[in-house]
Every structure is written in structure tokens, then in C-alpha cells.
Amino acid sequence: MTAAPARAPKRRLGVIGSFVWDVIHGRDVRSAPVEEWGGITYALSACDAALPDDWELVPIVKVGSDLAPQARQFLRTLRHLAPDAHPVEVPYRNNRVELRYHSDERRSEVLSGGVPGWTWAGLQPLLRNIDALYINLISGFELDLETAQLVRQHFKGPIYCDLHSLTLALEPNGLRTWRQIPEVEAWCACFDVLQVNEDEVAMLAPDPLALAAKALSHGVRTLFVTMGKRGVVYFEDAGAGRPLRTALVPAAVARVDGPGDPTGCGDVWGATYFSRAVAGDTLEVAMRRAVEAAARNVEHRGASGLAHHLRGELHAP
């Protein structure tokens, strides 16, 4: 009898970010505040929905001991979760964010909790056997610049980063406020693909084109600037002395009655794009998939069951 051929090992997508428990005000004027998982759970759900079956998902995340059981329960809902993946429990109160929406795209944010960021010594062993790395600076404190530089130096696969809350300071009362980012060029040199939104651009450069020039001259291959309902602008280094490629990709229209829920759309967009890009999609195809996923996210409340929703599946709560 001929032995069956050995099955090729699955490739592994590492995801760095933070679990956050959200309390959301103003998302629906008819209801009381909503409490649910936020933070990296949106990106994890999007990766889970977008990855093909020959990839598996490796969350590289810390969680406070007060919410560790709930975080493990959430991860168990992910179809592509690697068998050896688990959150690192730390003896601190988990991060919590109070969000107050003033419009679909404008909100204030107050952070509490104390989950610490990664040191290189703690992170290095977790990056072994990782083929691609998605980083979302949900709190802004997951990595400092020195640690990000060491990741770039030692990790040889592609690295995607959503700068997210790196551009937010933390006031004594927990309110997040905008701050200018020093050493922008050094941060850019740590990543192959960089994602920011319009407000974040202003903390990094005078305008998106100036940021693109700065980022692409320091190692970033593709810069994405998300613009909410207007879509996404991308800037790509075409290489070999060819001119910069840039285009606006319009947002898809969500099929939902009322305003929908914009929470997590940027996270879903970036995680979907990178998952499809590492799976082999062209930039244009991966972006189209990301735009569609972000629109579907608007139709869903929260991250619970989101991966099922993004795949178009029915899911009992």
C-alpha cells in the first residue's frame, strides 16, 4: 500500500495587538451603552474570515487576568486559530475603552487598564515559525520604537502595521488626545506596509503625499490612508526607478437600515487586505476584498460572531 503524501505544514500569520473591552455610547441613540469585545478582536475576526485553509492564525497578545477566560473563549470561536496559540495572561487589569460617538466617524476615547507592552526578550520566542506579521497598535503601547526595530531586524517575513493609537497621547484621566510622532522615518523603516487614517496623517506629515514620500523612501512598500466613507488611497513603490503608483479605491456601500456600526472598520479593512495579500492576491484584488469586508462590518454589531458574518454565514449568538 502506498503511503499518503505528507501534508505540508500550514503557514502562520502572527497578529500583535491588544484585547480591549469596549463601552460604546451614541452608536444607537435609542439604546443604552453597549459593552462588548473590541480592540484586536476585529482584526482577528477579519483574518479568520479572509485566510485560506493553508494558513493558521497566531495571536501574539497579552490579556489582563480579569478578562483572560473571556479572551480565551473568544479565540476558540476562530476557525483558523493555530492549535498552539493562546493569549499571554498578565497580572493587571485588562484594557478597557469608553467610546462616545459624536458622528459616524468622530468619537472620543477614554482608556483604563494596565496591560504592558512587549519587550524584545518576551516577543522574540513568539515570532519563531511565523511567516507573516500583522501589527495593530491598538493601545499605542504594544511596541516601543526600539522593540519595533528589533522585530524588523530579526523577522524576515512581511510586516504590516496599522499605526492606530500610536498617534494618541494618554491624559491623566485616560482621555486619548492627538500627539505628534517624533522619529517618523525610524518607525516607517520597521514595516513593509503601513496603514493610517486621515487624522493620523496629520500627526506624521503635512499631507498624505508628504507622508508617502517619507515612508516609501525609508522602506515602506505600500502606504494606505483610510478615509471612512470616501474609501482608501494607496501609494505604492513601483520600483526600478518607476513613478509612484497611487489611486483612490472607493468604499463599498453597506446594506443596512440606519447608520450601521463603524466601529472596527479600519481594523477589518487592513486585516482582510493583508490576509489576502499573503495568500497571493494582487494588490487590486486584496483591496477589493478589504473594501467589501469593511462594508460588511458596518452591518454587524461588535466582534462577537463577526468572522461568521464576514464569511456570509448564519451564526447563532
TrEMBL record:
Which ranges carry the Carbohydrate kinase PfkB domain? 178-304
Q: Which Pfam families has this protein been placed in?
A: PfkB
Protein origin, superkingdom: Bacteria
| One Gene Ontology molecular-function label | kinase activity
Keywords, alphabetical: Kinase, Transferase
Tell me what this protein is called.
Answer: Carbohydrate kinase family protein
